[in-house]
Amino acid sequence: AQSVTQPDIHITVSEGASLELRCNYSYGATPYLFWYVQSPGQGLQLLLKYFSGDTLVQGIKGFEAEFKRSQSSFNLRKPSVHWSDAAEYFCAVRGYGNEKLTFGTGTRLTIIP
Amino acid sequence: EAQVTQNPRYLITVTGKKLTVTCSQNMNHEYMSWYRQDPGLGLRQIYYSMNVEVTDKGDVPEGYKVSRKEKRNFPLILESPSPNQTSLYFCASRGGTSGRTETQYFGPGTRLLVL
Fold it and tell me: Does A44 contact chain B (CB < 8 Å)?
């Protein structure tokens, strides 16, 4: 069965500092991987996705993520966070030809001035 | 404007009273899904549909039904709601071939309280 682990429930970062959110997945074959963001009281927005090829994926809002097959990880990074990045972030995995999408439990990001 | 709409946005009901949450997309997408979001559990997939009349169970289908009679609509049915179905529900759709060209959209959510 596929699964996603986001080990950090809550992370606090100073505005302007760099950010890395961790995601580990379990899937038997090559996965499709996603990062979503949910601002307070809002729906979900896709930040970026990995399907194949280049393991460093660029997304919206200055985010990037790196797929590391050997570590079963897909960590999200941003070099300099802004106060508007405060939100909850979800990592998700899906298989090829498969509509079953499994989310992690999320990481809540707080930005301090 | 491309969008996924859900109705109602907020609903309070009582145990056992059948309800339907509608979901509609205007993008001619083949794939649609329903999720519930609960604190500390993230989003969990309830059901998904790969096309008209093609549906399958996600991770938490118990207590829910779906139908896909038209491509644009994917209603979620709770035949006999119980308090443990109190949650925030999201509908989603995606189009394009799986992979780089696919696009995904989530609805705004439906907050359900079952008393």
Answer: yes
The DSSP letter of residue A41 is T
Q: What is the DSSP string of chain B?
A: ---EEEE-SEEEE-TT--EEEEEEESS--SEEEEEEEETTTEEEEEEEEEETTEEEE-S--TT-EE--SSSSB--EEESS--GGG-EEEEEEEEESSSSTT-EEEE---EEEEE-
The C-alpha of B79 sits at a distance from chain A's nearest C-alpha, in angstroms, of: 23
Q: What is the percentage of chain A residues whose pLDDT exceeds 90? A: 79
Minimal-distance CA residue of chain B relative to A4: B42
d(CA B28, CA B25): 7
A39–B contact, CB cutoff 8 A: no
Mean pLDDT across A90-103: 88
